[in-house]
């Protein structure tokens, strides 16, 4: 009888191992399915972004989306008509002058002092108006720093709307996607 118990235990252990392997495979399948679903959602989102940008530029294919004086003029006009100038923006990432201090060897105290007179990606700004555009920096926007009311002119592609649910968030995100990827 003792021997039968041992073989019964062994069979139970084997069944437990098989069950565990089935669970692991099910988890792996679920993870793969989740990744595929996320990739499909990402692809759909990119296609939606491209469709909106193509509509703004009045083009039918991606090859015609290149950043040129003509397409910049179209985007400038579109944004001037559709942007909410009461919206608040901030930097997407550190501004060019800040790189030395943020990711380089720059002195932290000096950086904090310079941020008082220069615009920083960490600041929040009111949008005042679109200013001008060029092929190197794209559309420029006049902004006013909320903290101290100082005014600056910044490249719009460096900014994002603070409110993620706002129309400005989508407008600025689409513009940045286009300007960064099609020049």
What's the average pLDDT? 86
How many strands, which pairing sense, and closed or not: the largest β-sheet? 5 strands, antiparallel
Using only CA atoms, what is the Rg?
Answer: 27 Å
Q: State the helicity in percent bands.
A: 40-55%
Low-pLDDT sequence parts: none
Alpha-carbon distance between the two ends = 81 Å
- Spatial strand arrangement across the major sheet: 4-3-2-1-5
DSSP helical segment count? 5
How do the helices and strands line up, and which of them pair or pack?
Layout (H helix, E strand, L loop, with lengths): L1 H56 L11 H14 L5 E4 L7 H4 L5 H7 L9 E11 L3 E8 L5 E5 L3 E3 L5 H15 L2
Antiparallel strand pairs: 1-2, 1-5, 2-3, 3-4
Helix pairs in contact: 1-5
Describe the fold and architecture:
With 183 residues, the chain is of the alpha+beta class. It folds into two domains: 1-61; 66-181, no CATH class. It has five helices and five strands, in the order H-H-E-H-H-E-E-E-E-H. The model has no long low-confidence stretch (mean pLDDT 86).
Quick structural summary:
The chain starts with a helix and ends with a helix. The protein is α+β, with helices and mostly antiparallel strands and 183 residues long. Helix content is 52%, strand content 17%.
Name the features:
single chain; 183 residues; alpha+beta; 2 domains; 5-stranded antiparallel sheet; 5 helices; 5 strands; 52% helix; 17% strand; globular
């Amino acid at each position: 009888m003792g021997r039968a118990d041992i073989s019964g235990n062994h069979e139970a252990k084997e069944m437990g191992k098989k069950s565990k392997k089935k669970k692991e495979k099910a988890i792996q399948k679920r993870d793969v399915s989740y990744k595929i679903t996320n990739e499909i959602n990402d692809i759909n989102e990119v296609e939606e972004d491209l469709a909106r940008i193509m509509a703004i530029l009045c083009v039918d294919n991606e090859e015609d989306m290149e950043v040129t004086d003509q397409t910049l003029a179209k985007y400038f006009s579109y944004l001037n008509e559709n942007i909410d100038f009461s919206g608040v923006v901030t930097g997407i990432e550190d501004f060019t002058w800040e790189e030395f201090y943020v990711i380089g060897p720059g002195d932290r105290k000096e950086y904090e002092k310079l941020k008082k007179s220069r615009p920083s990606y960490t600041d929040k700004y009111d949008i005042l108006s679109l200013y001008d555009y060029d092929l190197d920096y794209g559309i420029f926007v006049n902004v006013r720093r909320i903290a101290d009311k100082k005014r600056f002119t910044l490249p719009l592609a460096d900014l994002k709307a603070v409110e993620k649910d706002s129309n400005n968030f989508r407008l600025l995100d689409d513009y940045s996607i286009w300007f960064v990827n099609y020049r």
